[in-house]
Write a structure and sequence with these properties.
It is a single chain. The protein is 34% helix and 13% strand. Strand 6, helix 6 and strand 7 form a beta-alpha-beta unit. By secondary structure, it is an alpha/beta fold. The longest helix has 18 residues.
């Protein structure tokens, strides 16, 4: 059995898809088990090739390993030492992980803070002789879901305040897109329902356009899979758009797209980022100045660019 640790969020799991596929191809006869937060299990099903999940809500809540020692434990979670020690406690025959002498793991490549998250985990496997294709990002469409097709998804929330573009600007973008004929919906978690309501009201959207808190993870994935466009900050829904090849405009700050952005060779995904900014008037509380420096006009221009790319390619394929 192969045990993989990735006890993080939606975007984190989506960026680990190529590495998971590489492990599946390298060990076709072995059971592949992924330790993730329980609520992420529906998304793991969309990766394909994973036999089962073990619920793990963060490293602090790690229970005693309930099964036999894995033949192979793979740390796709972090650089250690806590994640290394958690996996080592399961008694694996071998641990694949970045070098961490503090955890007693002197094997593996060195960590590189500057590399893209997708390539990071592929490089880890390559170091151990396991091929993994960073472009292999496609997700399966959830079965048994029937969301509205062809909508434009505006997703104003993120868990990290610094990554949250001001709500008034999201509303301005949503209003402009609605005026252009887009069928706009505003998504988010249940805790972001108030934010979504504010954006929709300010944009003049109907109440039924607010889907925040009304879709589960599989429903959100299906919505994105069938969407016309996604406009969001650097958060999980942007990675769903990448996984489904859905046109997207993603607003970055403080972390640059070189580390978490969509593949730059895909013209139907556009990552916006201002490299340096000393501040911006009207920024949301806690918003990173580089993100706050992005203007509504820039976002709308990027929408035009990705929609031209979609028309030019005929069809988008992840």
């Amino acid at each position: 059995m192969i045990l993989v640790l990735r006890a993080l969020g939606v975007g984190d799991l989506a960026t680990a898809v190529p590495a998971l596929r590489g492990l599946r191809a390298a060990y076709p006869g072995r059971e592949l088990v992924v330790a993730v937060p329980g609520w992420l299990a529906p998304l793991v099903d969309l990766v394909g090739g994973v036999d089962r999940t073990v619920p793990l809500d963060g490293l602090d809540a790690a229970p005693a390993w309930p099964g036999p020692a894995p033949a192979l434990a793979v740390n796709l979670h972090g650089r250690g030492p806590r994640s290394h020690r958690l996996l080592a406690a399961t008694g694996p025959h071998r641990l694949l992980a970045f070098r961490c002498p503090e955890a007693g793991h002197t094997d593996g490549p060195a960590w590189d803070d500057t590399e893209h998250e997708v390539r990071r985990w592929c490089r880890l496997l390559h170091w151990y002789g396991i091929p993994a294709d960073p472009a292999d990002l496609a997700l399966r469409r959830p079965p048994g879901t029937d969301p509205p097709a062809g909508v434009t998804v505006v997703h104003p929330g993120t868990k990290i305040a610094a990554k949250r573009w001001p709500a008034a600007r999201f509303a301005a973008v949503a209003a402009a897109l609605a005026d252009r004929g887009h069928r706009v919906v505003v998504t988010g978690s249940a805790g972001e329902r108030d934010l979504a309501d504010r954006v929709a009201r300010r944009a003049g959207l109907p109440a039924g356009s607010v889907l925040a808190g009304r879709t589960d993870l599989a429903g959100l994935a299906a919505l994105v899979a069938d969407a016309r466009l996604v406009v969001s900050g650097d958060t999980g829904v942007a990675h769903l758009a990448t996984g489904y090849g859905t046109a997207s405009v993603v607003l970055f700050g403080p972390v640059p797209p070189e580390r978490w952005g969509p593949p730059p060779e895909r013209p139907w995904h556009r990552a916006l980022h201002v490299g340096t900014a000393s501040g911006a008037a009207g920024a949301g509380v806690g918003t990173d100045p580089r993100l706050a420096a992005l203007r509504v006009e820039e976002v709308l221009a990027a929408v035009d660019e990705v929609e031209r790319a979609v028309r030019g390619s005929g069809a988008v394929a992840a």
